[in-house]
From TrEMBL:
Stored InterPro entries: 4Fe4S-binding_SPASM_dom, Aldolase_TIM, rSAM_sf, Sulphatase_maturase_rSAM
Record GO terms (molecular function): oxidoreductase activity
The protein's name in its UniProt record: Radical SAM additional 4Fe4S-binding SPASM domain-containing protein
Organism: Paramaledivibacter caminithermalis (strain DSM 15212 / CIP 107654 / DViRD3) (Clostridium caminithermale)
Limits of the 4Fe4S-binding SPASM domain: 184-241
Cofactor: [4Fe-4S] cluster
Amino acid sequence: MLNPELIIQVLEYFGNGDKYDIKIDYGCTTNGTYVPDSLIKYFSKYDVRAAISVDYIDNETGNFRGSGNSSLKWELVERNIRKLLNSNVEVKLQSVLSQETWDKYTYDLINFASQVGIKAIGLILSFDFNFYKIFSPQEIAHRVLEIYDYSQSQNVQITGYWYLSFLGIINPDDWEERRSWKTCPTIGRLLSVEADGSVYACKTTARKLGNIESFNEIFKNDNYKYYAMRAYTNSHKCHGCIIEGFCSGNCTGAVENEFGNIYSVDDNYCTTVKLIVDGLLKRYLSEISQKITVHKFV
């Protein structure tokens, strides 16, 4: 957002991809504190989706992030969100449930989304594995399912890696197209290009894949294969897991930084996700059963 001229040049140069016989989808992630008016019309023109990072809303202090809060407050972010929405820009909120946000994550964020017409909130579970030691998998799963239930009542969809695993089970046709990467897109689906042209599987991963100037060489690099094949070969600890094939574990970069390689898993995180998916499936089956019962009665 600090270089709007560059963003505009990219959008105007590539357009929607028609002249290259491809379809280009655009998205940006921002904390929402600075959204230049010069960009908004281009976001609307090229259907750029805006993901705004808001962990919670504290109406007393004006804070909205689990860490790194500054003199910039929620009022400013809210104003920018409304500007984007008024220009027909699709907005999604992105939040993190962590040790820092656990006590602050109330329903105010969901209520705001429902009020202004935002349809989805991404709820990321903390990438810090200590989170799963401070709070038990049962506590975290229960909290996520409570948040999910309330969001459903407000017509706001809560999503996250954990939700994608559930979605793959109940929508096998859609899953067919994306089964090769399951949850974390770093494995086989994402490239991150740094300002100097260096390419990584993700900004959070450690192994360099190459340089954007030698694009085709990236896919011949052993480091690329290391990340991409993780989509097809889970950790040995995943074998026999009840959701094996529908989950690829936590954030790849977080696993790599914690354990030294991406084929490791955290048992507490795995238990948390299984409990959440189990809860979502029970809710889904209950809804289906009620629909069948009503249909038969009618």
